[in-house]
Design a protein that fits this description.
The complex is a heterodimer of chains A (408) and B (245). Chain A is of the alpha+beta class and 408 residues long. Helices cover 58% and strands 17% of the residues of chain A. Chain A contains 14 helices and ten strands. In chain A, strand 2 and strand 3 form a beta hairpin. Chain A is elongated. Chain B has 245 residues and is an alpha/beta fold. Chain B has a single domain, classed as 3-Layer(aba) Sandwich (Rossmann fold). Chain B has a six-stranded mixed beta sheet, sandwiched between helices. Chain B has a four-stranded antiparallel beta sheet with strand order 2-1-4-5. In chain B, helix 3 crosses helix 4, helix 3 runs parallel beside helix 5 and helix 4 packs across helix 5. Classes of the chains: A alpha+beta (408), B alpha/beta (245). The interface between A and B is medium-sized, with 23 and 27 residues.
Chain lengths: 408, 245
């Protein structure tokens, strides 16, 4: 008897008791789908992060002023990061593609009857490099505009949609707080970041314009910026770059040997990755818990197979009388258990697929069903079938034909 | 009609069962010989050893002592797997309770022994249909046991016994669950099959049923006490043996 015939016999037997078969499979169905859903959420989060890092262009360092340290140092005039540092670093440190100063603020943007509160970023053309962000239309800033702090803006997709709709915004005038500015460019759409914040809700202006007209100039540190973004060259190690930047800035800011760095450096990719990793570990833990239900499902299968063997003792006796060898009986019941588990596993995969679809479409959660995990879970559930089906099958094969035939 | 070819030969077979502390000898040295084409009724009251004898020649159980030959193969020394193969190739079983698979068509029930045979599956259906024709149920091949009468179910079981073209049909109380009229039909069918050359061994305790056979073996207390052919026993009466033994 070949495997195909064994499976045919098994499915015929399972079909004779559809409800029981389905109930028996339920444990496996739930177990498999829970494991796959958990793992695919973790994988989805990781894939999402990879996509964001890709979009970011990688190799991005963020440099912040360390505000905590002012308290610790207590000496008042602590040096701050400035646009001058950015320009110097770009020249002095090998391996930096761009170092962009950014001053961050908010402003009310008005165009005709429409208005919108947006985040404003004052920067230079390096911004488009470090953010890996191209323009959908229009142009970048000219040297003249940057130099004299002219009132020109590059707007994000959301601002464009909110204030201009379908009409061409280039050359149009918008009112920013209390001054007029000309729209010179529109950024490409980027979508929400890893926290769900809209990146397209932004207005970009020359640094000097923001400093003089929106955020105001700090008395102690007139050249102060909110942060610096540094894009490293492709072949440069981020740790090397961090060290180089640290020693350069300490010197540039005249930090004494015994003082802490007055700034912080954050590796964006690293931060995102470690957050995704935490999420993935958490989900793997949940998957491990879910796999306990697979074992419980396996015990359910063993239970029902024992009942089935007892119920079908006469059938076993008959099959033996007409020529079934003990191994034929063993295989028959083993294949039946495996078929139950494998079928349950496949339904579980289908269910997991449906659940992840719903999560994506209804809740916007990123999921990724890895083919590997699908193969593993089918294999694992078949293994459960073998493990928990073996004892009942062995019991069936050890029956004596004369006893089995006379079983009432 | 009977050729000289031997189908069953037993030499001094004994079977012991352990009943608690006692050893019960269900068979106490039985020598028998059944030739091809014979129609034998094995009789005796319960506990006489006739069922044990049937299990031995049916290769369902192994002897404690002695030797059993089936179709000139010594089966008393075979292992369970080999016995299964012998049962599959040489014997067609018919049981009192029919033992058909429920919710399975007559055709698939008849095919069942072929599943365990070396016969290629391309031949299964035609062979099974042929056997259903022999028992007159060809047009009911798609019916399930629950849709058939007792007599029809037993006919399906007989078709199943024939499908491997066995050297012997071994029927254990085949009419035990049937009424008188159906019993006659089934026994007529056995007689027809015997006329076509099939060797039939019938285990029964009913004299009416045994009367269809051409030879009667009577067991009592684990021994064969009578073995008569029909032509020698015109005034045969089982009660004589049961009373005298």
């Amino acid at each position: 008897m070949n495997l195909l015939q064994l499976f045919r016999i098994a499915f015929t037997a399972l079909k004779l008791n559809v409800l029981r078969s389905v109930l028996t499979m339920l444990g496996i169905i739930i177990g498999v789908s829970a494991v796959i859903v958990m793992v695919s959420i973790g994988e989805g989060a990781k894939a999402e992060v990879d996509k964001q890092i890709e979009a970011m262009g990688g190799n991005i360092l963020l440099l912040y002023n360390d505000w905590n340290d002012r308290m610790a140092g207590g000496t008042g005039a602590v040096a701050k990061l400035t646009d001058g540092h950015a320009a110097m670093m770009e020249q002095e440190i090998f391996g930096i593609d761009a170092a962009t100063p950014i001053v961050r603020s908010n402003a009310q943007i008005v165009a005709g009857p429409l208005n919108w509160r947006a985040q404003v970023e004052g920067t230079n053309n390096g911004y488009f490099i470090t953010r890996n962000w191209d323009l959908a239309m229009g142009r970048q800033f000219t040297a003249q505009e940057l130099q004299s702090g002219e009132t020109v803006v590059v707007i994000g997709k959301i601002i464009r949609d909110e204030l201009f709709g379908a009409s061409d915004p280039i050359g149009q005038t918008v009112r920013v707080n209390n001054f007029n500015a000309t729209v010179i460019g529109v950024l490409e759409e980027k979508g929400p970041d890893s926290r769900g914040d809209e990146q397209d809700d932004v207005v970009v202006m020359p640094l000097k314009t923001v400093r003089t007209r929106i955020s105001g100039v700090s008395r102690n540190n007139p050249d102060q910026v909110s942060y610096l973004e540094v894009k490293g060259a492709d072949n440069v190690s981020m740790n090397y770059l961090k060290d180089e930047i640290t020693s350069y800035l300490r010197q540039a800011m005249s930090v004494r040997q015994d003082q802490n760095d007055p700034f912080r450096i954050r590796d964006m990719a690293e931060t995102l990755e470690s957050r995704a990793e935490t999420q993935a570990i958490f989900n793997r833990l949940l998957a491990a818990v879910a796999s306990v239900s697979l074992v419980v499902g396996g015990i359910g299968i063993m239970n029902i197979m024992m009942v089935s063997v007892t119920e079908r003792t006469r059938e076993i006796g008959l099959r033996m009388a007409i020529g079934a060898k003990p191994d034929d009986i063993l295989n028959q019941f083993l294949v039946e258990a495996i078929a139950l588990c494998a079928l349950g596993g496949m339904i579980g995969i289908g269910l997991a697929y449906a659940i992840t679809r719903i999560m994506e479409t209804s809740y916007g959660m990123a999921t990724l069903i890895n083919p590997e995990i699908v193969v593993i879970s089918i294999g694992f559930s078949a293994l459960i079938g073998v493990f928990f089906g073996y004892y009942p099958a062995l019991k069936a094969s050890r029956l004596q034909p004369i006893d089995a035939l006379r079983y009432e | 009609m009977t050729s000289n070819r031997s189908v069953i030969r037993t030499e001094g077979i004994k079977k012991a069962y352990q009943m608690g502390e006692e050893v019960l000898w269900a068979l106490q040295g039985v020598d028998t010989h059944i030739d091809q084409g014979e129609f034998v009724a094995v009789m005796g009251p319960s506990g006489s050893g006739k069922s044990t004898y049937m299990n031995m020649i049916g290769c369902l159980d192994v002897v404690s002592e002695g030797r059993v030959f089936l179709d000139d193969i010594e089966v008393s020394s075979l292992k369970p797997d080999e016995l299964a193969t012998v049962r599959n190739q040489k014997i067609g079983f018919v049981f009192q309770q029919f033992n058909l698979l429920a919710r399975t068509s007559a055709l698939d029930n008849v095919i069942l022994p072929l599943l365990y045979s070396q016969i290629p599956d391309s031949e299964w259906k035609s062979r099974a249909m042929h056997c259903l024709e022999l028992v007159g149920l060809a047009e009911r091949s798609g019916h399930q046991p629950s849709q058939l009468s007792g007599g029809q179910q037993q006919r399906v079981a007989i078709a199943r016994a024939l499908v491997n073209d066995p050297v012997m049909i071994l029927a254990d109380e085949p009419t035990g669950a049937l009424d008188t009229h159906t019993t006659e039909e089934i026994m007529t069918l056995f007689t027809e099959l015997n006329d076509q050359g099939k060797t039939i061994v019938l285990v029964t305790h009913e004299p009416d049923v045994a009367a269809y056979a051409k030879r009667q073996m009577i067991f009592r207390d684990g021994s064969l006490v009578a073995d008569e052919r029909a032509e020698n026993r015109r005034s045969f009466n089982i009660d004589d043996y049961q009373a005298s033994a």
